[in-house]
Amino acid sequence: MIQYKINEIFETIQGEGSFTGQPSIFIRLQGCPVGCSWCDTKHTWDIELSDEVTKETLLAKSQETSQWATFTASDLYSLIIERGYKAKHIVITGGEPCMVDLTPLCSTFDNKGYSTQVETSGTFDILVPEACWVTVSPKVNMRGGYAILESAMKRANEIKHPIATEQHVDDLKALLAEHAIENTPVYLQPISQKSRATELAIETCIANNWRLSVQVHKYIGIE
Ligand SMILES: C[S@@+](CC[C@H](N)C(=O)[O-])C[C@H]1O[C@@H](n2cnc3c(N)ncnc32)[C@H](O)[C@@H]1O
Ligand SMILES: Nc1nc2[nH]cc(C(=O)O)c2c(=O)[nH]1
Ligand code: SF4
Ligand SMILES: [Mg+2]
Predict the structure, then answer these.
(1) How far does residue 95's CA lie from ligand 3's centre (Å)?
(2) Which residues make up the binding site for Mg(2+) (predicted)?
């Protein structure tokens, strides 16, 4: 049975991409080697053995930390029931969740009538059931040296690209052309709510008939 390394579990409103506005249960996995300089979850990058805590300690934490604890898929389902969460949509994020096989995790929730979504950089094989909604946020030239996989670009149900500069837009256009992506919905997400990034995203969305994703949760001050 896979022991997933979990950083946090919380219920909120999905603030990004096609499911924006959907009440969702977020399962955040620990660990990511990709190294995006502007990453808003840097506390999830390292898996330090000294940061492993008990399930109880993890569930009691009230701030962002690099602490993690292991849970099986059925532990996570039991927790969600115990906490009385009402959302029926599960978002698996991180960190980079696709460093591990997410099939048992998604299947556990599929079998209980939940929908599932994974947020991934597309730099690892995406091991999820067919029904899982896959959001690929392709990463180009990040510090960790990982590259986007062809299989990830093809599997994506949506492509959500963080941008702040024209270069980021050019990188995305090159990726879409290289992988012959034509019908997948494309979202531009301004990096860190910067006003120039937001203006650029708006004008680029209009020019290309792409969609805008503005990380709604940050504007309304929720998790
Ligand atoms: C924190 S990542 C975790 C999942 C996975 N590692 C990935 O990159 O898709 C979740 C989403 O937030 C985006 N993101 C991270 N930091 C951001 C920032 N400062 N501004 C806008 N989007 C950001 C990522 O590109 C990704 O779409
Ligand atoms: N509300 C909310 N929506 C989100 N969508 C993607 C998130 C992520 O960190 O992956 C995220 C998050 O952290 N909070
Ligand atoms: S791939 Fe995702 S979690 Fe990893 S550094 Fe980039 S944005 Fe952060
Ligand atoms: Mg986030």
Answers:
(1) 6
(2) 41
**pTM for this predicted structure:** 0.98
* Closest ligand to Cα 142: 3
- SS3 state of residue 13: strand
Q: Tell me, what amino acid is at 29?
A: L
Q: Is the ipTM of this complex over 0.95?
A: yes
Contact 131, 109 (CB under 8 A): no
- Which residue among 96, 124, 161 has the greatest number of ligand 3 atoms within 8 angstroms of its CB, and so is best to mutate? 96
- Give the C-alpha distances (Å, rounded to integers) separating 91 from 13, 123, 135: 10, 18, 10
Kind plus residue range of the DSSP H or E element containing 147: none
- Identify the residue whose tokens are 């910067």: 194
User: In a 10 Å sphere around its CB, with 0-12 CB exposed, 13-18 middle and 19+ buried, how is residue 196 labelled?
Assistant: exposed
Strands annotated E in 22-176 = 23-29, 69-71, 89-93, 115-120, 133-136, 158-163
Q: Best substitution site from 7, 28, 36, 37 to test ligand 3's pocket, by max atoms within 8 Å of Cβ?
A: 36
CA dist 174 and 168 (Å) reads 10
**CATH class for domain 4-220?**
alpha beta
**What are the extents of the domains in the chain?**
4-220
The number of the ligand nearest the C-alpha atom of 197 reads 1
Q: What is the pLDDT of residues 160-198, one digit of tens each?
A: 999 999 999 999 999 999 999 999 999 999 999 999 999
